[in-house]
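A quick word before the example. In earlier lectures we treated sequence and structure as two separate objects. From today on, think of them as two lines of the same record. Here is Carboxypeptidase B written that way.
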Amino acid sequence: MWALLVLIGAASVSAHLQDLSFDGQKVFRVIPQNDEQVEILNFLASIMEVDFWQPDSVTMVKPKMQVDFRVETEKSFQVEDLLKESGMEYQVLIDNLQAALDAQFDSKVRTASHSYEKYNNWDTIAAWTADIAAQNPDLVSRSVIGETYEGRPMYLLKMGKSGSNKKAIFMDCGFHAREWISPAFCQWFVKEAVETYGKDTVMTTLLDKLDFYVLPVVNIDGYVYTWRNDRMWRKTRSKNAGSTCIGTDPNRNFDAGWCTAGASRSPCASTYCGSAPESEKETKALADFIREHLSTIKAYLTIHSYSQLLLFPYSYTYDLPANYQELNSIASAASKELASLHNTKYTYGPGAETIYPAAGGSDDWAYDLGIKYSFTFELRDTGRYGFLLPESQIKPTCEETLLAVKYIANYVLEHLY
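And the structure line, produced from the sequence above:
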């Protein structure tokens, strides 16, 4: 078997970015049963480029854990032989990544302009932020909280009826560039707020009594790159000193157990923590805004994909947060709300023990800052499509997630501190 591994390692690594067709690339799911099988995955990752989808890195893999990863076309048969030979349970989740990629765009909506049931590119989203604010001046305003590494403005929408000393909820989407369903949800949430204000009693009360800050895309440069260059890109697009590898994982870049568990110090790793906490312009802009508005922001919601999880602190430690019981019961009730529409099952709990330890996340950072209601959503699905969730699932995904978000927001309103 080791001879086979060495053979795989010797095959080219450079075919990587020359022509980005994903034709023939496969996504495997394996469940290593013991340390030896985990070791095989570690070795595989060390000799060839393996893109880990779930968990984010091979370093987090443990026995009995479900592991999804993508491999280059020319390696996929050898990898399959290796898995067979090692006796590891595996299945091919996606047989041809390019086909799955093309199949994402299955929306029946035929429009070149913005649509809530399609994936919109950044230029379309940016124009939409201006439009939605212009069309709903009494409910929505737009500001710029910073700019990205490549100089793009970071637009923030503030939603709510004007009132004195209102408390607020901060929500962001699009931390990881390839998680397209995430920005789709932020857009959907804004749409629902403006369309149902005055009709839906819960939404009306929420907007009357709270403000919502919505950052539709955090990692704009990365998101643009997924549309133009590499659909599977995850990180930011900043240059790293002394390395040809680009980008930092923005959700490992916060000052919460920074660069300890589940984060890498290698600029080439997909979980690279950056040169220092808030080294990324995007994370710094977000953190600065929250710090400046700390007296009013009472909840923090960050939207990711995939795995159908509702997580709360901590991820950088196995220690439980002070209000663990409360957060757990909110997550339980919100997951029930979510499941009530399409019966989508979510798992909930503290990040480290529910999935794996991961340091430097925005949710832990916000919580440690004093925002006691801090949650991370990992939206659909559980791996059938992974990051390539078809557009036909945008509406049901957003509808069900909205129920959970409204539940949490309403709880926060009733338990202001």
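Notice the following. The longest strand covers residues 297-305. We will return to this example when we discuss secondary structure assignment.
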